[in-house]
Amino acid sequence: MEVYKIRGGNRLKGNIKVSGAKNSAVALIPAAILANSPVSIDGLPEISDVFTLKLLMEEIGGQVTFENGKMTIDPTTMEAMPLPNGNVKKMRASYYLMGAMLGRFKRAVVGLPGGCFLGPRPIDQHIKGFEALGAKVTNEHGAIYLRADELIGAKIYLDVASVGATINIMLAAVRAKGRTVIENAAKEPEIIDVATLLSNMGANIKGAGTSVIRIEGVEELHGAQHTVIPDRIEAATYMIMAALAGDGIRVDNVIPLHLEAVTAKLREMGVKVEEDEESIFIPKTENLHAVDAKTLVYPGLATDIQQPLCVLMTQAEGSSKVTDTVYSARFKHIDELRRMNAVARVEGNTAILTGPAQLHGSTVTASDLRAGAALVLAGLIAEGETEVRDIYHVERGYSDIIEKLTALGADIRKEVITPASN
Ligand code: EPU
């Protein structure tokens, strides 16, 4: 089993470069299925979700190269291969294969996705959208079967402003006949990024980034070149790390506008955040104050920041509360932080953390991607050694994390431990 071993207490200093956005990448790659010539995507993060998607593109017959963050996907030889099992189960975002394959082939078989367990994560809004476009959707032995004679544009009102449903419906609708209108669409920057690639491929999409997206279907989409936006969640994780352990850290390759909610919350806690055009500098933080926070859909504070933010709250003077309105059960990290001496508890969909608490090194387990990131941050400020287990979660989303943190002065290494040392 691979683990991270972190010796806490080092002060960190220097520049850290954010990679391309995971949650864009996992939709941009399937979008290539819709083209009739090669699509190139630059700036992709080197994370396991991207490697898994490369394999999936190959499984359905695509020709793919991936070097130095640039993936070129030739979709011309792809076929509507059923994907009931295997790689699709490794990541939740494999649900984008449904929209993209339905858009191109008018049929798809995709195993129900895996990914982080954050409490119930239904895909009913995706399915409602596909059905509105004319697809017949059934769940047979844990795989979703989608079939349509033709896809016809429709008006779709999302009951929840879901990122995944908004993108998935866009993928299916760009080659449908006529006009699709998605109402109560999610507004996350990743949706704009995917719409930008699709538009460069010849799609006709208006309103991405607002709550109403209008799509005029086109017959064909062609290849295009695209550069993925920076990962705002990775950036926010490193901003929080800078507030916890930094003696001056510049987070490079960011779009500060995408980070407004986290910047505002950090400032409220007493962190100095100096924004530049494409970077954010955080000097050493002297005193942290307790705050209350609530996760919301974009442009509110992202649920993906909630877990790292909890670590910062353990260091703030007084009692902080964070309510997760997006995923009510995304609190598995709290028990692990308590093992490290955090004073924290969960009440319903709210975590209450009292600080400042000197964290102690311990053996902890990452229950999901952002919980893992939170435990790494906690390890960096804990007294003694922390062992983080199940780090495959972290590696789904943080490119080169060991190299990046080591360059700032952190004492973190990956080790393979045998079950005997459990
Ligand atoms: N929801 C439904 N029905 C649906 C879809 C969603 O009820 O059909 C609910 C969910 O249960 C949740 C809320 O709507 O309560 C929002 O879910 P959303 O669909 O927006 O989430 P997602 O698309 O599955 C993406 C990110 C997540 C991130 C959420 C929220 C990807 C691949 N994943 O998930 O990222 O937490 O949006 O912003 O884009 C992460 O990066 O660690 C991560 C989990």
UniProtKB/TrEMBL annotation:
<keyword id="KW-0131">Cell cycle</keyword>
<feature type="domain" description="Enolpyruvate transferase">
    <location>
        <begin position="7"/>
        <end position="405"/>
    </location>
</feature>
<comment type="pathway">
    <text>Cell wall biogenesis; peptidoglycan biosynthesis.</text>
</comment>
<dbReference type="GO" id="GO:0019277">
    <property type="term" value="P:UDP-N-acetylgalactosamine biosynthetic process"/>
</dbReference>
<feature type="binding site">
    <location>
        <position position="92"/>
    </location>
    <ligand>
        <name>UDP-N-acetyl-alpha-D-glucosamine</name>
    </ligand>
</feature>
<dbReference type="GO" id="GO:0051301">
    <property type="term" value="P:cell division"/>
</dbReference>
<dbReference type="InterPro" id="IPR036968">
    <property type="entry name" value="Enolpyruvate_Tfrase_sf"/>
</dbReference>
<keyword id="KW-0961">Cell wall biogenesis/degradation</keyword>
<dbReference type="InterPro" id="IPR001986">
    <property type="entry name" value="Enolpyruvate_Tfrase_dom"/>
</dbReference>
<comment type="similarity">
    <text>Belongs to the EPSP synthase family. MurA subfamily.</text>
</comment>
<feature type="binding site">
    <location>
        <begin position="121"/>
        <end position="125"/>
    </location>
    <ligand>
        <name>UDP-N-acetyl-alpha-D-glucosamine</name>
    </ligand>
</feature>
<keyword id="KW-0963">Cytoplasm</keyword>
<dbReference type="InterPro" id="IPR050068">
    <property type="entry name" value="MurA_subfamily"/>
</dbReference>
<feature type="active site" description="Proton donor">
    <location>
        <position position="116"/>
    </location>
</feature>
<keyword id="KW-0133">Cell shape</keyword>
<dbReference type="GO" id="GO:0008760">
    <property type="term" value="F:UDP-N-acetylglucosamine 1-carboxyvinyltransferase activity"/>
</dbReference>
<keyword id="KW-0573">Peptidoglycan synthesis</keyword>
<comment type="function">
    <text>Cell wall formation. Adds enolpyruvyl to UDP-N-acetylglucosamine.</text>
</comment>
<feature type="binding site">
    <location>
        <position position="326"/>
    </location>
    <ligand>
        <name>UDP-N-acetyl-alpha-D-glucosamine</name>
    </ligand>
</feature>
<dbReference type="Pfam" id="PF00275">
    <property type="entry name" value="EPSP_synthase"/>
</dbReference>
<dbReference type="InterPro" id="IPR005750">
    <property type="entry name" value="UDP_GlcNAc_COvinyl_MurA"/>
</dbReference>
<feature type="modified residue" description="2-(S-cysteinyl)pyruvic acid O-phosphothioketal">
    <location>
        <position position="116"/>
    </location>
</feature>
<dbReference type="InterPro" id="IPR013792">
    <property type="entry name" value="RNA3'P_cycl/enolpyr_Trfase_a/b"/>
</dbReference>
<keyword id="KW-0808">Transferase</keyword>
<feature type="binding site">
    <location>
        <position position="304"/>
    </location>
    <ligand>
        <name>UDP-N-acetyl-alpha-D-glucosamine</name>
    </ligand>
</feature>
<keyword id="KW-0670">Pyruvate</keyword>
<protein>
    <recommendedName>
        <fullName>UDP-N-acetylglucosamine 1-carboxyvinyltransferase</fullName>
        <ecNumber>2.5.1.7</ecNumber>
    </recommendedName>
</protein>
<dbReference type="GO" id="GO:0008360">
    <property type="term" value="P:regulation of cell shape"/>
</dbReference>
<keyword id="KW-0132">Cell division</keyword>
<dbReference type="GO" id="GO:0005737">
    <property type="term" value="C:cytoplasm"/>
</dbReference>
<feature type="binding site">
    <location>
        <begin position="22"/>
        <end position="23"/>
    </location>
    <ligand>
        <name>phosphoenolpyruvate</name>
    </ligand>
</feature>
<dbReference type="GO" id="GO:0071555">
    <property type="term" value="P:cell wall organization"/>
</dbReference>
<dbReference type="GO" id="GO:0009252">
    <property type="term" value="P:peptidoglycan biosynthetic process"/>
</dbReference>
